Amino acid sequence: MAAFVTGIQVMLGLAALVAMVRAVQGPNLVDRIVALDVVLILLAGGLAVQAARSGSELFVSAVIVVALVAFAGTVIVARFIEWRDTP
Amino acid sequence: MSVAEIAGITLILGGAILSFVAAWGLVDFPSALARMHAATKSASLGLALVALGAGLAAESATLFGIGVLVTVFMFLTAPISGHMLGRAAYDAGQVSGLVHDDLASRPSRPLSFETSRNRVSLLRMLPLVVIWVLLWRDSSAGVWIGGIAVALAIELIRGIRSRPTLVRPGAFVVFLAQYVWKVVLSNLRVAWEVITPHNDQITEAIIAVPMRTPSVPAALLVANAISYTPGTLTIELTADPLVLYVHVLHFESVDAVRREVADLEDLVLAALGEPLAV
C-alpha cells in the first residue's frame, strides 16, 4: 500500500510539473489560471492518498481546504478579468 | 486484500491516470477554452475518483464520507469556475477560432436573481448544518449550534429568493445514472484525443440553445450538468427568454448540439418534476 501511494504521488507530481509548463508559458492570464487550478486539484489528490496511507485526520481537512482554495482563486481571477476589461 | 481495497486501488489508479492525461491536455490542446474542457473537468473527476478510492482503500468510513463530499463539491464548483472563466475569456476577446458564434449577437440581459432578505428557509439550512457537523466529525451540542449559526448567517446575508425545489427520487436516480455514464464517456473521448498526437476533430463553436422550460432551477441544473461534461461548457445564461450559450469542442451542427441539450433537459425536468411550459 505504501509503495502504491508513493507511486501515485510521483505520478500526480509529474502531472503537476507538466501543468506548470502551461502556467509559465501562458500566453494569457486565462491559460495560467486554468493551469494553476489543475495544479491545486492534483495537490488535493496527492493529499487524499496520503490520508489513506497515514490515517491522519489532518490530511483529510487539507484536501477540502486545497479544493476550496482552488475554486475561490479561479472565481476571483475570473471576476478580476471581467472588471479589469470593463471601463 | 479485501474487495473494498481492490476497488479503492482501481479507483485511485484510474483517477491518477485521468489527472495525468488532464495535465498533458494543458500542453497538447490548442486554445484556452479547449484546454479548459480537457484539463479542469478531467482533473476534477480524477480528484473525485482518487478521494473516493482513498476512502475505500483505507476502509475508513470518515475518509469515504469526505470522498463523497469532495465528489459533490467538484460537481458544484468545477462548472461554476469553468463558466466564469469562460465568460471572462470571451469578454476579454481571448476566444478565437470559432466556426460558429451565437454569443456575438447576444441580445438579452444575463440572468439575475430577485433578491430579498425577509425569508429564512429551514429546508435550505439543513444540508449546510449537516455538512458542517460532518466536517467537524463531532456531533456535540456546541458544533450543532455553531453550524446552525453559520447556516443562519448565510441565509441572512445572501438573500436570494428561490423556493426549495423538490426532487422525484426515482427519476433523479435515472438522471444520475445516465449522467454519470455520459460524463465517463466524454472524459474518455477527450482523454483519447489528448493521448493521440493529432487533434483534427477539434472544431470549436458557441451555440445558442433556447430552453423549453421557464424554470430557473431546472435551467441552472442543466447548465451545470452540461459544463461538467468535457466537450460542452456553458458560457452564458440569459433570462427572458432563458437561453443557454454553450461552447462545444466537437461542432457538427447546431441541431446536434440542441438535441443533446434537449435530451439532458428532459432528464432534469423529469427528476425535478417541473412542467415543460407555464
Please describe what this structure looks like.
The complex is a heterodimer of chains A (87) and B (278). By secondary structure, chain A is an all-alpha fold. Chain A has helices at 2-25, 29-54, 57-84. The model of chain A has no long low-confidence stretch (mean pLDDT 85). Chain B is mainly alpha-helical. Chain B has 8 helices and 3 strands; from the N terminus they run H-H-H-H-H-H-E-H-E-E-H. The model of chain B has no long low-confidence stretch (mean pLDDT 80). Classes of the chains: A mainly alpha (87), B mainly alpha (278). Chains A and B meet through helix 1, helix 2 and helix 3 of A and helix 1, helix 2 and helix 3 of B.
The name of the CATH topology of chain A is Helix Hairpins
Which segments of chain B are poorly predicted (pLDDT under 50) over 5 or more consecutive residues?
none
Q: Which structural class best describes the helix and strand composition of chain A?
A: mainly alpha
Percent in helix of chain B: 55-70%
Largest sheet of chain A: none
Radius of gyration of chain B: 20 Å
- The CATH class assignment of chain A is Mainly Alpha
Quaternary status = heterodimer
* Gross morphology of chain A: flat
Write the layout of secondary structure elements.
The complex is a heterodimer of chains A (87) and B (278).
Chain A: H1 2-25, H2 29-54, H3 57-84
Helix pairs in contact in A: 1-2, 2-3
Chain B: H1 3-28, H2 32-57, H3 61-91, H4 122-136, H5 141-158, H6 169-195, E1 205-210, H7 216-228, E2 232-238, E3 243-248, H8 254-272
Antiparallel strand pairs in B: 1-3, 2-3
